[in-house]
Amino acid sequence: MRIPLNDDQLKTVKLALSTLATEDISREKPVAEIMERIENCEKEFKDKGLRQYAKAAQKRQRDGEIEIDDDAVVSKGEDAGAYVGAWLWVGDDELEEKEDEEACRECGKKYATCGDGYDGMCPDCADKAEDKK
Ligand SMILES: [Zn+2]
What we know:
Number of domains: 3
Bound molecules: zinc ion
Helix content: 40-55%
Strand content: 5-15%
Largest sheet: 2 strands, antiparallel
Radius of gyration: 26 Å
Low-confidence stretches: none
Structural class: alpha+beta
Shape: elongated
Number of strands: 6
Mean pLDDT: 89
């Protein structure tokens, strides 16, 4: 999971966590663990070596298809390289199933169930069935 926070929001979270730990001793360990994770993330995002991978990845961007943020997550691999988090555009037409669509029992074509289909058939097959009558 990724929750993008700006600097002020992050300061607020850290303050709230430290307050929580001082008010309730049982929270000290989990708060320390969360703080460590936050600090590791901050270090990673400031690591110029890792940022270079994000910059290199941005050269592969394609408008409206693949986008890479300046603060993309970078995971250094064991081989010479790193994985860089990217945004991949996925159009509605690529979805396997749309909520308001059903496959026609005749031709298998997807059609909107709220449209002109009839009796499990797409509009075209429903029309053909009607013509045969
Ligand atoms: Zn059909």
